[in-house]
Amino acid sequence: MISPTLASEIVRLYHAEHWAPGTIARQLRVHHSTVRRVLEQAGIPAPPRLRPTLIDPYVAFITQTLTQYPQLRASRLYRMVQERGYAGSVDRFRHLVAPYRPKPLAEAYLRLRSLPGNQSQVDWAHFGKLTIGRAQRPLMAFVMVLSHSRHLFLRFYLNANMGSFLHAHVAAFAHFEGVARVLLYDNLRSAVLERSGDAIRFNPTLLELASWYRFQPKPVAVARGNEKGRVERAIRFVRDRFFAARTFNGLDDLNAQALHWCRHEAASRPCPEDRARSVWDCYEAEKGLLLKLPADPFPCHERVLVKVAKTPYVRFDLNDYSVPHTHVRRALEVLASADTVRIVDRGEVLATHVRSFDRGAQIEDPAHLQRLLEHKRAARGARAIDRLHHAAPTATAFFALAAERGVNLGVLTRGLLDLLDTHGAAALDSALRAALARDAAYLGAVRQLIDQQRARQGKPPALAVELPDNPRVRNLTVRPHSLADYEQLTVDTEATEATDDADDKDNMP
User: Domains of the chain, with CATH numbers?
Assistant: First the structure.
């Protein structure tokens, strides 16, 4: 692109000074094709070419063909002209044939107006990625805007699946305190499963939501994004006025900021339908014309069938959630919301967990594992190692090095568990890394490194004040030994030393 000043100078030199396009291109240091394009845009006919070209005998054929097939590629047209005797190169042909291609007429659009309370527009937008633990989740923004007042709702999610889609609708309806009669969607999978012209097969879950809130779902025509221009402009408004240079501490903080922004800064801007009033004033007038909310919100959980393997965990959304050990090797159902994960077996809720958006995390109910340990005591050793590896990831490499050195892994596991309970996961993992750096895969080295860390921090050595959770230890009775026996040993030692001294004196010359 060239500046308007340079374009004006090209037109002036050609029209007033009668410079040739080649002279203008050389003097202004631009390409000659740029000069011709500027002149054509200014309504000045392209100057005739001074030299004949190889394409001149085929101009009539090219014009007729492109008139009949305006979308025909230049590569195919080149082959057709080549078969008729054209001897030029394909690159030169592409350049020469471009002016003969008919230009499509620019399409004009009617300005669409919406009655108050009649329509809302809905869409997703991608805002990069958010790192949570070991996972990188897509940061998706759900935007719903009332077409008349332009009051908008914005909420961010870590996916765009059906569970988030439903939850966003319920939250948006609560934000607007009502529902528009028509909701306009793009042809996204959560709304439209299949479409052939005007024949549309909606997603059954969306139809359940529409029936619950009594609105009409309506997709826009294929490749007609202008029909939902209000939500498209709202997304651009969100990118420029809210998300740009925004700092936040997690998804909850971002959503709290988004809700405050929607109710204040976004709502105080002038309404495009009536510039004399704000968006909030128009919304207050429109709110009474929205459909009333039902007594109960729509159940907006995500439903997924899962298979439990031989370990008491189900895999859902990159993470493992514990279940009772009595339900291994079974097919269960996961009902997930944005906050919780419920695991159900034929209507019975087996477990309820806080949802994690990490990757490879184990979310456990201690009661599930305790019952498994009571049922199968042989699992205790494996569980201890598993606990160590999840609390201190460096333990995996430390155990591998200890095995190479012939260290007793059972003793090592018990000792590291004691250190984990006494000092915590962070201190243990730091000490394990330091031990690996010194090539010392021994329990004593880890203990020494932890004591050194505490000494540098000015803390006293930590002492284990609780007995192990072992009934054999807790029920053990220790009888104190009489100290008189030790006093007798002292008396016998003194008598022996006195006798030895007397013998030494007798033996002196």
Answer: 4-100 (no CATH), 119-287 (3.30.420.10), 302-374 (no CATH), 379-456 (no CATH)
For strand 135-146 and strand 192-196, is the pairing parallel, antiparallel, or unpaired? unpaired
Maximal C-alpha separation, the chain: 144
Between helices 425-437 and 409-423, what is the axis angle to 10°? 130
User: Which CA distances in Å does 152 have to 182, 186, 226, 499?
Assistant: 15, 17, 18, 104
| Per-residue pLDDT at 400 | 87
The whole-chain average pLDDT of the chain stands at: 85
Phi and psi at residue 131, in whole multiples of 5°?
-90, 125
Q: Model pTM?
A: 0.61
- The CB density around residue 443, as the number of other CB atoms within 10 Å, is 19
Least Cα distance to 86 among 54, 124, 51, 122 occurs for 54
Q: pLDDT > 70: what percent of the chain?
A: 85
Distance in angstroms (rounded) separating the CA atoms of residues 344 and 109: 52
How far is Cα 394 from Cα 446, in angstroms, rounded to an integer?
Answer: 12
pLDDT digits (tens, 9 = 90+) for 20-50: 888 999 999 998 888 888 888 887 766 665 5
- CA dist., res. 41 & res. 101, Å (int): 16
Q: What whole-number distance in Å separates Cα of residue 456 and Cα of residue 379?
A: 38
Residue 251 has what pLDDT? 94
